[in-house]
Write a structure and sequence with these properties.
Bound molecules: phosphoric acid mono(formamide)ester
Strand order of the largest sheet: 7-6-5-8-9
Shape: globular
Largest sheet: 5 strands, parallel
Structural class: alpha/beta
Oligomer: single chain
Strand content: 5-15%
Number of strands: 9
Amino acid sequence: MNRHLLSAADLDHAGAVEILDTAERLDRALAGREVKKLPPLRGRTVVNLFYEDSTRTRTSFELAAKRLSADVVNFTAKGSSVSKGESLKDTALTLEAMGADAVVIRHSYSGAAHRLAGWVHGSVINAGDGTHEHPTQALLDAFTMRRRLRGGAGDLAGLRVAVVGDVLHSRVARSNVLLLSTLGAAVTLVAPPTLLPVGVDGWPAATSFDLDAVLPNCDAVMMLRVQRERMSADGAGGGNQFVPSAREYARRYGLDARRMAMLTEQAIVMHPGPMNRGMEIAAEVADDPKRSTIVEQVTNGLSVRMAVLYLLLGGNE
Ligand code: CP
């Protein structure tokens, strides 16, 4: 594996499968233990550098590092010297001076993780940069699909995945399209034209505006959060609306019980969280005990992040 994980494009087929296999192995190694801790990263320090809010990613990186016996420093911009004007570079160098071996960064600016990788000597893991990428989310999604639909081994060749909703603002969609195509899956992006990015024709994915037509022909449907806060930043609040209304969006692109019934028997429903229940996904779909993998995705995030830390920090040496 490379020194950093900045993009899903950093992973070739063998590298991606190695992470998924390692996650399976670590998960099994911990399953039978009363004390859920393994020793490989003893003496290593992982810094979680979060400039943007997070529930799932931050806590699972913290828990993953601790389960591998690393020391963990949690840094959030709120309450730090960032409020006094300290730059990302100076903050990162300060934390590195305290002995960080890996920095996990979330930032609202696309490209922040790449910038950081040029400044520090340790490994950098992109935990979500603006609307750009979120590679460990794509890995945990692939892990979940592989477990549910491929028996937990190999790649995702031939799997049909629909990624639905606010593709324009979604780092999850970008990383998933890259990783899923590396693993052999066929991706269809389903969104209103206003929520597809310029240049999407060059992505390794098909596009559709018609959710009802796509649903009967997919094995996994991944609903994306409508990112209203990024729409405001884009000026949507000033009248440049991306969708006519929440109700209209839900009618055209929301996954409700009627639409879920159009899926094949084995198909699963995914969402990276946090969800807008009632907008992109109905509560009864999100909580469906058979098809919804939303809680499982969170659990799997821990195994996948353990695998990434383990491989990046030389736990296999
Ligand atoms: N899916 C995800 O990145 O969630 P958080 O924003 O809670 O980390």
